[in-house]
Amino acid sequence: MPLDLPIIPPFVVTYIQRGRNPSMPTVRVKENEPFEVALRRFKRSCEKAGVLTEVRRREFYEKPTEERKRKAAAARKRSLKRMRRQSMRLVRLY
């Protein structure tokens, strides 16, 4: 007796695992609202959801070593930025 369970694509599983919303951004067109305004709202919601950055990131396969290097570089950049902010906070130029 086979179970008829829906097949979930791997990218949806990663969204669920990370706690993100797996649904795509949607916009309801209001009464007498121009199409351009609704399109602008949709683009803004896509930008907030990070849809385009996710698509660009998944466009090509990224090896695990490349992913680790990218994450390490981002962590290094964040720490340098944090250190720079702290040093600016300590120095008063008045």
N-to-C span: 79 Å
| Number of separate structural domains | 2
Which structural class is indicated by helix and strand composition? mainly alpha
What is the mean predicted local confidence, pLDDT?
Answer: 82
Protein name: Small ribosomal subunit protein bS21
InterPro entries: Ribosomal_bS21, Ribosomal_bS21_CS, Ribosomal_bS21_sf
Family: Belongs to the bacterial ribosomal protein bS21 family.
Keywords: Ribonucleoprotein, Ribosomal protein
Structure report:
The chain is mainly α and about 90 residues long. It has two domains: about 1-60, no CATH class; about 65-94. The chain contains four helices and no strands. The chain has helices spanning about 10-20, 35-50, 50-55, 65-90. It is flat and about 55 Å long. The model has no long low-confidence stretch (mean pLDDT about 80). It holds the Pfam family Ribosomal_S21. Keywords: Ribonucleoprotein, Ribosomal protein. InterPro entries: Ribosomal_bS21, Ribosomal_bS21_CS, Ribosomal_bS21_sf. GO terms for molecular function: structural constituent of ribosome. This is Small ribosomal subunit protein bS21.
